[in-house]
Amino acid sequence: MLIDTTSRAQPNESPKALSGCWRSALPSLGWNLAFLVSVTVAAAALKRLELSMTWKVLCIVVPLALGAAFVHSTYDLVRRSDELVRRMYLEALSVVAVGVWVLAFIGPILERTGLIERVDSFYYLLVIGVLFVTGMGLSHRRYGA
Amino acid sequence: VKNRLRVLRAEREWSQADLALRLGVSRQTVNAIETGRYDPSLPLAFDLARVFALPIEGIFEPDRTEAAATPDTALQLSR
Lengths: 145, 79
What we know:
The complex is a heterodimer. Chain A is an all-alpha fold.
C-alpha cells in the first residue's frame, strides 16, 4: 500500500529554512539573550531595591514572557529546519542531555573532593552551553556543514 | 550510499544553492549529501528524483559493503 507523503509539512515554509544553522538560529539566540538579561536585571532589582508588589510581579512576568518567546522561537527554528540541520540539533542536544546526566552524578563527588565548593545552577548553565557548542561543532565536522 | 548529485548538478549548471532552493533545504544539506557525509531521507530522495526527473536509483547507488549485505549476497555467501 502506498501512503501519500506529499502533503507532509514542508520544512521550506519560509526562506529561513534555506539558511544555515547559525543564521537561522539568530532570532532564538536573540530571545535567549533578552531572557538572560531580563533575569539578571530582575534578580539584581529584587536584591538591591525596595520594590512595590507591582514591580515584583513585573520582575517575574517579564522574564517569563521573554522565556516563553525563547521557547517558541526555538521550537519554530527546529520545526522549520531541514532534516540535516534538525539532525545536527538533535545530536548536539543528545550530547547536552548525556553531559548533564553525568554531571548530576559527578557533581556531588566533586563537591566532596573540595575541588568545587558547590555545584549550583551556574555550573549546569556553563556545562549546557559548552556541551551544546561542542555537540554542534562535532556535527558540523561530521557533515562538513 | 553513493550518489551522482555533483555530476547531475553540474550537467544542469546549477549551484548547490540553486539545488537547495529547488529542494527547499539548506545549502549545507546539499553539500553534505554530495560529499557522501549524509544520506538523505526517503522523502528528500524522492524530491531529488523529481527535481532531476530521474528514478531514485539513477541518482543513488548502494556502497559495495552495503550491496554485500543484501539477502541474495548473504545467501550466496552461506553456500
